[in-house]
Amino acid sequence: MHSTPGASLKHKELEVLALAKEANGPWFEAVLKAAQIQADRRAKYSGQGDPFTNFEVVGRLMGVDTKDVFRFYQAIKFARLLVAAGDFEDESLEDTLIDLANYSLLEAGFRCRNSTSNAQEHDTQMKFNFRSAFPAP
Questions:
Q1: Contact 78, 136 (CB under 8 A)
Q2: One-character DSSP codes across 56-116
Q3: CA dist 54 to 20, 66, 91, 127, Å?
Q4: Do 23 and 16 form a contact (C-beta atoms < 8 A)?
């Protein structure tokens, strides 16, 4: 299900959301929180432009594929969960899990967008090997 950026929700999308809320209310509340955080951070980091610009810029600065930037941010959140799976003064466990979900969904959206547009440009960038850069503890 692909939506046009900035467009109102379609009737079918609203039906899917209603079914999801009915199926799992706590999950739905987490999704709403994730969506609000995503909207706030997009405004903060990307303005009204392409929501992936900051990730693409980081990829170019580091000389890695943009998809690896998403994986890097996901790895930071996974590491946070492995090192200390509790609440911190500035970030709760729930915040960490929602951030992880948002980074994963951002990658999914980026891949979806690029599967129909300029995927070849992104595939020619150098790959970053996280396993060698971040060996398991």
A1: no
A2: HHHHHHHTS-HHHHHHHHHHHHHHHHHH--S--SS--HHHHHHHHHHHHHHHHHHHHHHHT
A3: 31, 10, 22, 18
A4: no
Distance CA 83, CA 79 (A): 6
- The Cα-based distances of 14 to 25, 132, 133 in angstroms read 15, 43, 42
Residue 125 — very low, low, confident or very high, per pLDDT cuts 50/70/90? very low
pLDDT tens sequence across 12-66: 989 999 999 999 999 999 999 999 998 888 888 877 778 898 899 999 999 999 9
* Residue boundaries of the structural domains of the chain: 11-133
Residue type, 23: A
Distance, C-alpha 107 to centroid of its chain? 5
Q: Is 3 left (phi over 0), alpha (psi -120 to 50) or beta?
A: beta
